[in-house]
Amino acid sequence: MLNKDSHFIKDIFAKEIKEEATRVGYGKGLLEAGEKNKNIVALCADLTESTSTHLFAKKFPHRFVQVGITEQSMASVASGMAAMGKVPFFSSYAMFSPGRNWEQIRTTICYNDVNAKIIGSHSGVSVGPDGATHQALEDIAITRVIPNMTVIVPSDSEAARKATIKAAEHNGPVYIRLAREKTPLITTEKTPFEIGKAYPVWVTEKPDVTIFSCGDILFNVLRVAKTLTEKNKKVTVVNVPTIKPLDTKTIIEHAKNSQKIVTVEEHQRSGGLGSAISEVLSESCPKQILRLGVDDSFGESGTPTELFKHHGIDYDGILASVEKYIK
Amino acid sequence: MISLTDRKIADLELKANDIRVSIIESLAAAGSGHTAGSLGMADVFTVLYFAVMNHDPKKPNKEDRDRLILSNGHIAPVLYSTMAHAGYFPVKELLTLRKFGSRLQGHPHRTSLPGLETSSGPLGSGLSQAVGMTIAEEMDAGEISNKFFYCLLGDGELNEGQNWEAIMLAGKKRLHNLIAVVDRNNIQIDGNTEDIMPLEPLREKFLAFNWHVIEMDGHNMRGLYQAFLDAQSVAEKPIVIIAHTIPSKGVLSFQRDYRWHGAPPGKGPEDRVKKDKQKEVALKELKEVRGEIEEKIKNLNKE
Ligand SMILES: Cc1ncc(C[n+]2csc(CCOP(=O)(O)OP(=O)(O)O)c2C)c(N)n1
Ligand SMILES: [Mg+2]
């Protein structure tokens, strides 16, 4: 059943549920953080509205830099501003930042260990009709591998708002992964969010299976947990919004208690959340793990619904894979 | 190549009009995609595919073909529409644009459709690829090669530093078989180019990198044809044609408004035409343009 401590909205399984894209939560969070701390500045590479940076840019025009379509330079410009005491948030599509400008982020931000925040919107296949070139499915892998980096994948718009505010308070490089598409708003202001913490959101005694997930796909994982519970399976779901540093304590605790482990993410099966969890458990609590995600292929054009189905990570696909695995 | 008769020019104008109609229809069917740049570049694409380039829709892989590298992949609708009208695939397939399973991916995917030379969408890497192709060609065929490499770029796209790295290399290598075309429409996503990231003086920038520069009206068929001939005759330098175009050219109600960059008919700005009328109005306005061209042809026939 749902963990009360999650403080989700009243009925997360209701037919009608308010939706908002995580990129919008970022825009709101940036505005709030900017009101509190005048050192916060924003940069954007010709995608001001798509990344919701326009809210900040309108309110604080003198603290916003339009850099044009220059993602590589933007990362290092942010590094320079951070070196002077600013707290830059720079945004583009995840494919281009941290995709295109990975080395600039590695050296001029992480190796320098400066206080700059990388905001990658339009991650995953939910980007839809734009197709593979715009669907970042590798960004968790390439960011979490860099020393000094913190990697956050918020599960809904409200979580993205909180993640942005926490990132502003955290001293050091942070990557926040966002999505284009509207998704269910399931968390509330009261829902806890700390960098570095994993949260059991659906709990049971002695689970047959524990599912770890991150990002807005969490909503469908919860629906799957509900169905499995109704079929008398014992399920735990742990939301892991911080991929790095990983909450190893919570993860090992839940893995130890559980017969089987599953990970679900809108990312390549290799390199993302599933890999991060496998790395930890292979050292501390070896278990067989079913990793669901995009299986070593590029995305393509289509509606988000078609693409989730195609890659077996829609509600039906996740349910079928988990049922088969725990049979 | 020979100079074109007035009738041939008018036929090209009709072709560009067909292509614009297909752009509107495919984008409206897709429900997403990029209108302004696609309509704006229809004349350049028409001249390249129907008068200038050595290519064969029936043999898309023929070895001696000229290469067209679309760097600003978001204007894929004009590439697809031109290719369909040139005979690469059925025109009705254009209605599958951006749909699941379609060969017409939202941004071009090389291995999905015969006739595509590369994949693009992420801005800034097309010119480097074109430079690489041209260098490889000159390694094998030498200076006498008669194969041309046409690389199409957006003006906003020129913000990307990688372009300037490629421009430097092309200048150094004196790649006279390389002909870049910049869609100088003065818009990008967030606004007008000179507000977002000023490019001027653009001609002087290319000149400083040792390029031959041709600057012109990107909607004048005869002028475009002549510009490509001129470009082919240049020795010892890469060539850039800075083609001044009007965003959304051909559909008066959408013209010169940067907000049409990434909106399809039906989802564009509403101050001039309501969303539910946008497709209809676009097709009507294109029909009026067609009428004018047909009138011109009638008069030519009388002469
Ligand atoms: C590397 C990269 N950064 C950002 C984008 C998003 N984007 C797509 S088109 C565009 C504007 C391009 O302007 P321009 O080349 O002038 O094209 P036009 O709007 O005139 O069609 C941007 C920023 C992208 N596709 N690739
Ligand atoms: Mg432009």
Summarize the model shown.
The complex is a heterodimer of chains A (327) and B (303). By secondary structure, chain A is of the alpha/beta class. Chain A is built from 11 helices and 14 strands.
Write the layout of secondary structure elements.
The complex is a heterodimer of chains A (327) and B (303).
Chain A lengths: L18 E2 L1 H15 L3 E5 L9 H6 L4 E3 L4 H13 L3 E7 L8 H10 L5 E5 L17 H6 L5 E3 L4 H13 L4 E4 L5 E2 L14 E4 L6 E5 L4 H13 L4 E5 L2 E3 L3 H10 L2 E9 L4 H12 L4 E6 L9 H7 L4 H12 L1
Parallel strand pairs in A: 2-3, 2-4, 4-5, 5-7, 6-7, 10-11, 10-13, 13-14
Antiparallel strand pairs in A: 1-8, 6-12, 9-11
Chain B lengths: L5 H25 L5 H5 L1 H11 L14 E4 L5 H11 L39 H16 L7 E6 L6 H13 L4 E7 L8 H4 L5 H7 L3 E6 L3 H12 L6 E6 L33 H25 L1
Parallel strand pairs in B: 1-2, 2-3, 3-5, 4-5
The complex binds thiamine diphosphate (TPP) and magnesium ion (MG).
Written overview of the protein:
- The complex is a heterodimer of chains A (327) and B (303).
- Chain A has 2 domains: 4-15 and 192-325, Rossmann fold; 19-184, Rossmann fold, CATH 3.40.50.970.
- Chain A is 36% helix and 19% strand.
- Chain A contains 11 helices and 14 strands.
- Chain A has helices at 22-36, 54-59, 71-83, 102-111, 139-144, 157-169, 218-230, 248-257, 273-284, 304-310, 315-326; strands at residues 19-20, 40-44, 64-66, 87-93, 117-121, 150-152, 174-177, 183-184, 199-202, 209-213, 235-239, 242-244, 260-268, 289-294.
- In chain A, helix 7 (218-230) packs across helix 11 (315-326).
- Chain A is globular and about 60 Å long.
- The two termini of chain A are 21 Å apart.
- In chain A, 59% of the residues are buried.
- With 303 residues, chain B is an alpha/beta fold.
- Chain B has a domain at 38-249: 3-Layer(aba) Sandwich (Rossmann fold).
- Chain B has 10 helices and 5 strands, in the order H-H-H-E-H-H-E-H-E-H-H-E-H-E-H.
- In chain B, helix 3 (42-52) runs parallel beside helix 4 and helix 3 crosses helix 9 (221-232).
- In chain B, 50% of the residues are buried.
- The chains are: A alpha/beta (327), B alpha/beta (303).
- Chains A and B meet through helix 10 of A and loops of B.
- The complex binds thiamine diphosphate and magnesium ion (MG).
- Thiamine diphosphate (TPP) sits between chains B (34, 36-37, 72, 74-75, 121-124, 154-157, 183, 185, 187-189, 261) and A (46-47, 69, 71, 96, 100).
- Thiamine diphosphate sits between chains B (34, 36-37, 72, 74-75, 121-124, 154-157, 183, 185, 187-189, 261) and A (46-47, 69, 71, 96, 100).
